[in-house]
Write a structure and sequence with these properties.
Blueprint lengths: L8 E4 L4 E4 L2 E3 L3 H11 L6 E2 H11 L5 H14 L7 E4 L3 E4 L5 E4 L3
Helix pairs in contact: 1-2, 1-3, 2-3
Length: 107
C-alpha cells in the first residue's frame, strides 16, 4: 500500500510529508521541523527551552512561549490526531504515538 490510502496519521520524515486519513497535510518548514524533533525523541518530555534551542538551529532566535504557539497550530493541523503531542504543564511537550499513528524514516 502507498500509505495515502490508509486511515490514521502518517509522518513520513524522509519525504517530509504528513498524511491524515489519506489526505496530505500542509505544514510549514518550522512546523515540520518541530514535529520531527518531537518524533525523534518519542516519549521524552522536552522543556520549552530545549525545543526553542533546537528551533534556533533551523530558523534563528525563538522565544520559549513562541513554541506554545507553534505547538497549538501543529495540533490543529494534525486533528483528529493532535493529541499525540502531549503537554506537561509548566514544563514542555512530548510525542506519544498511538495505534493509528505511523512514522516512517525511509522511502
Amino acid at each position: 500500500m502507498d500509505g495515502e490510502s490508509e486511515t490514521g496519521l502518517l509522518i513520513d520524515v524522509s519525504r517530509q510529508r504528513v498524511v491524515i486519513d489519506g489526505s496530505a497535510v500542509h505544514l510549514t518548514f518550522r512546523e515540520f521541523a518541530l514535529l520531527c524533533f518531537l518524533v525523534e525523541r518519542e516519549g521524552v518530555t522536552l522543556h520549552r527551552s530545549e525545543i526553542a534551542s533546537a528551533d534556533n538551529a533551523f530558523i534563528g532566535s525563538v522565544k520559549t512561549r513562541t513554541i506554545d504557539v507553534h505547538i497549538k497550530r501543529l495540533r490543529r493541523k494534525l486533528e483528529p490526531y493532535g493529541d499525540v503531542i502531549r503537554t506537561q504543564r509548566g514544563f514542555g511537550y512530548r510525542f506519544d504515538r498511538r495505534a493509528q499513528v505511523r512514522v516512517t524514516t525511509s522511502g
